[in-house]
Specification:
The complex is a heterotrimer of chains A (229), B (209) and C (329).
Chain A lengths: L11 H45 L5 E7 L5 E3 L9 E5 L5 E11 L4 E9 L4 E9 L9 H4 L1 H5 L4 E2 L14 E3 L9 E3 L5 H24 L1 H5 L8
Parallel strand pairs in A: 8-9
Antiparallel strand pairs in A: 1-2, 1-3, 3-4, 4-5, 5-6, 6-7
Chain B lengths: L3 H10 L12 H6 L4 H24 L9 H23 L1 H7 L10 H9 L6 H31 L1 E2 L2 E2 L9 H4 L1 H32 L1
Antiparallel strand pairs in B: 1-2
Helix pairs in contact in B: 1-7, 3-4, 3-6, 3-7, 4-5, 4-6, 7-9
Chain C lengths: L14 H23 L1 H25 L9 H11 L7 H17 L11 H12 L41 H8 L5 H6 L11 H13 L5 H21 L7 H6 L3 H8 L10 H21 L6 H19 L9
The chains are: A alpha+beta (229), B mainly alpha (209), C mainly alpha (329).
C-alpha cells in the first residue's frame, strides 16, 4: 500500500537546497517560538524564585541580588545570570530582614538544591526550602516533608568564630535523637544519606557566605537601591 | 483494504499500538509515566511532534534527496521538540521540571523517526495525518494506562486529586522507575492473554462453522 | 554434556522428601520466632504461607497445570518468605509480597525448577521497594504482652497505612550503621535482639542447617563459602581500621546473614550446580553483602546480594565447567 520513495536525483544543488532550506525554516521556527514565549518563561521563573525566597524570608518586601565579587567583596548582580543566586531582603521599613542563599550539593540520587535564610540578628539559619531533589520517595524526600527534620532549620546556629573567618561550629548532621547543640541537625531515621547531604550543603555554603556577609554588613544595611522588575 | 482511511487511524490505537505492540519509545513511557498528568503531557507533546513532523515531511518529501533524508527529518523533528519545550515552560515550570530531560529526548524517540521514515516519506499528507494521529493517540492512551495505575497506587491520587482517605498506604515502588516496568509488564500480560482468548474463540467459531 | 536437573543432591531422595526435611529444619526457627515476637509473628508467618500456597494453587488452576502443592516446596517458600519480614508488618502487605513472589518470581518463570530467582526473596524485594518505611520498622523482641496483644500495625486494614503502637527498635545492623553502637555477640547468637521474624537466633538456624547437611540434603559449600568470605573480608577491614568496621563475629551473627546463607542462597534451583560454581557463588554473595553493609546506603544487603548472585548463577556454571574434550568454545 505504501508508495515507493519518490526522491529527486541526487545533485549537489538538490542537497544544498534541501538542507539549507530546511535549516532556515527550522531556525525561523525556533526564533519565532522563543520570541513568543521568552517573556512568559522569564515571568514564571521569577515567580518561582520569588515564592521560594518568600517562603524562607517571609518579612522581606524588597530584594537585592548579590554575589561574591572578584575582589572577595560583595557586589550587586543580575540574579538571572547566577547559578546559585543570593538575595538580601529588606522589610517594609527598608530594614535588613536577612539573606536568602541558594546552595546545592550531591544527595542520594542526584543534586539537591536548597534555599535558606540567614538572619544577622540571630546569627542563625532561620528557614530552609528544598528547590530541587530527586531523593527516594517515601524516605529521602522526607527532607522536604518531615516536620521534625524541617524544625531543625527554624534556628540553626551558624555564628562565627572569634577570628570571624569561619563558623564557630561546623554545621553537622547527627543520628536521629542525638541533637544536643544548636548547630546540629537531627537526621531522619532511614534517610541518613539525604539528611547528611543537607548538612553538608549548608555547611559548605555557610562557611563561605556567613563570614563574608558579616564582614560586609555595613554595605548591605544601606538603603536598598531600586530593584529591577 | 475495505476502509483504508479509518484503518490508517485505528491501527495505531490497537493492532500497531506504539507501546504495547511495537514497543517503541519505551524510555519516556517508563520514565515519566509516574503520574497521569505527566503521562498525558508527554503523550500530547509526542503526538504534536509526530503529527506536525509527519505533515511537514510528507508535504516536502519530493524535495528531499535520498541521501539527505535522515538529517532533514531530524532537523525538523528537533525544531518541533524545541518548540514544545518552550511552550511547556511557558505553561508551567513545575510541569517542565517533572518531565525533566524527557521533553528534549522526544527528538530521539524512535517512534517519531520511525513513522517519518516508514510512512510520512512515502505517503500523501492526508494519509500521514491519519497515521500520525492514530499513532499519537495510541501512544498517549498507552502512557495514560501506565500513568493512571502508577499514580493511583503510588500517590493515592488521580490527576492530583486525592482518591482515598488519609490512611491510604502509598506504594513507593510505583513512583520509582522499577514500578514502570512492572506496570508495563502487567499491561503486556493482560493484552497478551486477551488476544489469546480472542484467537482461541475465533478458532473454535471457525471449526464449528 | 548433560547436566543433571536440579535439585542437585547426592542422596537421591525425592523432591518432597527433601522439602519435608527442610520444613523440619525450619521448625525450631519458626517456634523461636513466635516465642520472641508473639502473636504478630505467628500471624505474619501464617499469612505468608497461606498467600504463597494460595497463589500457587490458583495459578495452577488458571493455567491448567497439574497441582504442585503436594511437593511442599511452596510451603517452604512461604515459610522462608515469612521469616524474612519485620514482625509487625501489616498482614495485607505480607499477602501482597507472597502473591508477587510466587506469581512473578516463580510462576511466570515456569514454576518449580525453572525460577531464576529465589521466590521468597523476590516477594521481599518487592515489598522493600513498595513500602520502604514499613519494611524498616522493627518492633522490639520479647515485649511483655506479646502473647496477649496483636500489634495494631499487623492488623492494618488492607491498603491502609499501618499504625505502630510499640516504639520501634533498631536492628543490630542499623544501630551499627546509623548510631555507631555495637551489640554483644552473645545476644546475637541467642536471638535476644530485634530484626526480621526468623533471622534473630543464629544458633537455631545453624542447627537446622547442620541437620540438613547431615542428611545430605543441602549444599554446604555455598553456606561455608558465604560465611568464610564475609568473615575474611571483615577481618581484613577490621584489622586495617578497627574503629570504622565491626568485628567478624558481629557481621556473621547479625541481620539476615545466617538465614540467607543457610536457607536462602542454597535454593537448589537458583544456585549453581557444579561444586566449583557453588564456591564462586558463595564468594560473590559474601563479597556483595560486605560491600553493601559497609559502603551502601542500606544497613542490610543479604537479600540483594543473593538475588544478584541468583541472576548470574547460570553464567558461573558456564564459566567453571570443564570443557568437554574436543568441543569448541
Amino acid at each position: 500500500m505504501n508508495l515507493p520513495l519518490q526522491h529527486l536525483p541526487t545533485t549537489p544543488v538538490a542537497m544544498y537546497r534541501a538542507i539549507v532550506g530546511i535549516g532556515m525554516l527550522c531556525a525561523l521556527l525556533i526564533v519565532g517560538i522563543y520570541q513568543a514565549t521568552a517573556e512568559r518563561i522569564a515571568e514564571n521563573e521569577a515567580q518561582a524564585l520569588a515564592e521560594a525566597v518568600a517562603a524562607v524570608l517571609p518579612t522581606a518586601q524588597v530584594l537585592r541580588s548579590i554575589a561574591v565579587a572578584s575582589d572577595g567583596g560583595i557586589a550587586d548582580v543580575d540574579a538571572s545570570l547566577q547559578k546559585l543566586p543570593a538575595f538580601v531582603g529588606y522589610d517594609q521599613s527598608g530594614k535588613l530582614a536577612g539573606v536568602a542563599i541558594t546552595a546545592a550539593g550531591m544527595g542520594y540520587q542526584d543534586t539537591i538544591q536548597v534555599i535558606y535564610a540567614y538572619s544577622f540578628s540571630d546569627s542563625a539559619i532561620v528557614g530552609l526550602r528544598v528547590l530541587q531533589s530527586l531523593e527516594t520517595p517515601g524516605l529521602g524526600d522526607k527532607i522536604e516533608t518531615d516536620p521534625n527534620f524541617v524544625a531543625n532549620f527554624e534556628q540553626l546556629d551558624v555564628s562565627l568564630s572569634a577570628a570571624g573567618n569561619e563558623l564557630a561550629h561546623a554545621v553537622e548532621t547527627v543520628p536521629n535523637g542525638s541533637k544536643e547543640h544548636p548547630w546540629q541537625i537531627d537526621a531522619i531515621t532511614g534517610a541518613t544519606v539525604s539528611s547528611e547531604a543537607i548538612g553538608k550543603i549548608l555547611d559548605t555554603s555557610a562557611q563561605q557566605w556567613v563570614p563574608l556577609l558579616v564582614r560586609h554588613r555595613e554595605q548591605l544595611i544601606g538603603a536598598p537601591e531600586p530593584v529591577e522588575n | 483494504m475495505a476502509q483504508p482511511t479509518t484503518n490508517q487511524f485505528i491501527k495505531g490505537l490497537w493492532q500497531q499500538n506504539p507501546i504495547f505492540v511495537q514497543a517503541l519509545g519505551l524510555c519516556p513511557a517508563l520514565a515519566v509515566s509516574n503520574s497521569a498528568i505527566n503521562a498525558l503531557t508527554m503523550g500530547l507533546a509526542t503526538s504534536f511532534v509526530l503529527l506536525s513532523s509527519g505533515v511537514i515531511i510528507s508535504s516536502i518529501r519530493s524535495l528531499i534527496p535520498r541521501e539527505a533524508r535522515i538529517v532533514s527529518y531530524i532537523c525538523i523533528i528537533a525544531s518541533l521538540v524545541t518548540t514544545v519545550d518552550y511552550v511547556i515552560k511557558a505553561i508551567s515550570l513545575d510541569l517542565h521540571k517533572s518531565l525533566g530531560a524527557f521533553i528534549s529526548l522526544i527528538v530521539v524517540n524512535c517512534l517519531i523517526l520511525g513513522r517519518a521514515e516508514a510512512f510520512a516519506s512515502r505517503n500523501t499528507v492526508g494519509k500521514t495525518v491519519l497515521d500520525s494521529a492514530g499513532m499519537g493517540a495510541g501512544f498517549t492512551i498507552a502512557l495514560l494506562c501506565i500513568g493512571v495505575i502508577r499514580e493511583v497506587l503510588g500517590a493515592g491520587t488521580l490527576f492530583g486529586i486525592g482518591l482515598f482517605p488519609d490512611t491510604f498506604q502509598t506504594w513507593t515502588i510505583m513512583l520509582l522507575p522499577s514500578g514502570g516496568f512492572f506496570v508495563l509488564a502487567f499491561w503486556l500480560l493482560a493484552i497478551g492473554l486477551w488476544n489469546d482468548a480472542r484467537e482461541r474463540s475465533a478458532k473454535t467459531a471457525e471449526e464449528t462453522a | 554434556m548433560e547436566i543433571a536437573s536440579s535439585p542437585h543432591v547426592a542422596s537421591g531422595a525425592s523432591v518432597d522428601d527433601i522439602m519435608r526435611n527442610v520444613v523440619y529444619a525450619l521448625l525450631p526457627v519458626v517456634v523461636f520466632a513466635v516465642f520472641a515476637f508473639g502473636l504478630s509473628a505467628l500471624l505474619v508467618l501464617t499469612t505468608a504461607v497461606l498467600a504463597c500456597v494460595g497463589t500457587e494453587y490458583v495459578l495452577n488452576r488458571v493455567a491448567g497445570a497439574p497441582d504442585t502443592l503436594g511437593d511442599w516446596s511452596v510451603v517452604i517458600t512461604g515459610l522462608l518468605y515469612g521469616l524474612t519480614l519485620p514482625p509487625g508488618l501489616a498482614l495485607w502487605m505480607v499477602a501482597v509480597g507472597g502473591i508477587f513472589g510466587v506469581g512473578v518470581g516463580k510462576f511466570l518463570f515456569g514454576g518449580l525448577g525453572s525460577n531464576a530467582f529465589n521466590p521468597a526473596l523476590v516477594g521481599r524485594a518487592f515489598l522493600q521497594a513498595a513500602f520502604p518505611s514499613a519494611m524498616t520498622t522493627w518492633s522490639p523482641a520479647f515485649l511483655a504482652d506479646r502473647f496477649a496483644h496483636i500489634s495494631s500495625s499487623t492488623l492494618a486494614f488492607p491498603f491502609a497505612r499501618p499504625e505502630y503502637d510499640a516504639i520501634s527498635a533498631a536492628t543490630p545492623l542499623s544501630a551499627m550503621k546509623f548510631r555507631d553502637t555495637g551489640t554483644d555477640p552473645m545476644e546475637l547468637m541467642l536471638g535476644l535482639t530485634s530484626g526480621s521474624v526468623g533471622e534473630t537466633c543464629a544458633v537455631l538456624i545453624l542447627v537446622g542447617g547442620i541437620y540438613l547437611v547431615a542428611r545430605n540434603m543441602m549444599n554446604w559449600r555455598i553456606t561455608v563459602s558465604i560465611l568464610a568470605t564475609v568473615a575474611t573480608m571483615t577481618l581484613i577491614a577490621n584489622t586495617l581500621a578497627p574503629g570504622e568496621y565491626p568485628q567478624p563475629m558481629f557481621m556473621l551473627l547479625s541481620g539476615g546473614l545466617m538465614l540467607g546463607a543457610v536457607f536462602m542462597a542454597t535454593d537448589p534451583v537458583a544456585s549453581p550446580i557444579t561444586d566449583t560454581g557453588c564456591w564462586v557463588y558463595g564468594l560473590l554473595i559474601g563479597g556483595l553483602i560486605v560491600v553493601i553493609r559497609f559502603w551502601g546506603g542500606m544497613a542490610e544487603g543479604v537479600m540483594y546480594a543473593i538475588l544478584l548472585a541468583n541472576a548470574v548463577s547460570p553464567h558461573i556454571d558456564n564459566l567453571v565447567q570443564p570443557r568437554v574434550y574436543g568441543s569448541r568454545a
